[in-house]
Amino acid sequence: MKIIILTKNILAEQLLQEKLQRLNYEVFVSSHLFQPGNSQETVTAMIEYFPFIIFSETLSDAETLSILSLIEVQKHKIYRKGAKGLKRVDQEYWQEKGIHGWLLQSFEIEEIRELFSQAIAKQQTLQLLKPLSTERVVPSSKIRRPQREKDPMRLDECGFRNNERKIIEALASERGQIVSREKLCLILWDKEATNSKLAQLSYLVKGIKQRFNDLGIHIELLQTSWGKGYSLTSTFYDYFSLEEVQKTEEALY
């Protein structure tokens, strides 16, 4: 298995690199991606060969988000290295951005072994089940591929689940304003937010983002505001029918 560690200081990764190599993984450590002027093509060309990506703690949040925005996160298992674990709300934020898990500096080789062993097993299982899965399938002949203003799509043509549509419609009614996670829980389940409901909400938002990607839209349409909630970017209205959004607003109010 091939792993790439993205860092700003190669020397800072020697201990982790050694542990991974002892587990017989091919490990490549790079600080090249953070040189000025690198294009998206340069980044994707380097990363596409590595099923597993580790972001070093030497990278800032902004630098990590910048690289995540340039790669197709669904094609990789992505981890972030750090000194300590994150709060649940912070974990959910990074999971929505494409981070699958965390590598703590305190991890012994056995913990690293099990972390990657479980990830590989899960990936293999998903590959076996993929041809059999019928969930979220929409016939390709019925999906209208995005062409921005020239060919706006309708939500009911895109295979969104009921609760996913409710989220999109609630956000669309606010026209770019942030909608809190607590308010969305009330809209979806008519109940106050609990840890369980917030986790379900995060899962639904992740599904929406994945569906946008499946439709060929690789820019951010649904934005997460850390600690505040969610909103739709102005670009959303380039891809989806404004008439449908207006009807949604009338239905909600």
Automatic annotation (TrEMBL):
Residues 129-234 bind DNA. One of its GO terms (molecular function) is DNA binding. Residues 129-234 form the OmpR/PhoB-type domain. InterPro entries: OmpR/PhoB-type_DNA-bd (IPR001867), Sig_transdc_resp-reg_C-effctor (IPR016032), WH-like_DNA-bd_sf (IPR036388). One of its GO terms (biological process) is regulation of DNA-templated transcription. SUPFAM superfamilies: C-terminal effector domain of the bipartite response regulators. PROSITE patterns: OMPR_PHOB. Transmembrane segments: none annotated. Keywords: DNA-binding, Transcription, Transcription regulation. This is Transcriptional regulator. It comes from Enterococcus florum. The lineage of its organism: Bacteria, Bacillati, Bacillota, Bacilli, Lactobacillales.
